[in-house]
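Morning. Coffee machine broken again, so started the prediction first thing and wrote up yesterday's gels while waiting. Chain of 241 residues, entered below exactly as on the submission form.
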Amino acid sequence: MNPLYISVFENEPNVRAFFSTKEGSSLKSPYYNESVLKELNLLKYPIIWPTQVHKDHIEVIKDTTFKTSFGSSTRIICPGTDGLVTNCTGVVLTTVHADCLAVFFYDPFKKVIGLVHAGWRGSSLGIAVNAVNIMKKEFSCNPKDILCFISPGISQCCFETGPEVLATFQEKWEWAEEYSIKKGDKNYLDLKGINARQLSLSGVNKIQVSEFCTCCSSDIFCSYRKEAGITNRMGAGISLI
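Came back before lunch.
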């Protein structure tokens, strides 16, 4: 593993994607680590970042909207957004993390990419499913062609919640309790498993899930829960080249 980042979709020639480690994290808002981007030869591209409000809105970036709305900006912020989907080459979709999941999407046939920030609130709303539906609607992607990667993030072993969090999931996903372990009055939720199940139900069958728990492995990754509000953030990014 590169000390700065984990490589995602590394065997796919038309895409570059990464999830940075603690060494590749940054304090800079919106947390772009230029060392990572430089190493991947992505520093020359415009970077698009959603402000991440823990909801399920996904912004669609097309060639026309990109040129009309953003012009030649090198740092582009999308307010009120937790995910991005595009068919544009030469731009970097990014999100930032310190326990929440990044879910990556790539359709090698339609040449479409996506990236979402999936904390528990976004996951309960089905933000990953929303990304798949947008790829289908906007770019005619077939879910069976889409490659997905669920990043390092807080795993079930460390994600202790109250019953109200599980109840939020159960309002929309009747099977959610299958991904909860109860200890006393607390529940331990498997966010990675929930997102993988949601993706599978949406027709995606090429799903890779990282085994890394950011909370357990806080020597490698930033963990908001383990490190009492660490302000560094790891960056996730994906670009068509």
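The first helix runs from residue 34 to 39. Going to sketch it on the whiteboard this afternoon.
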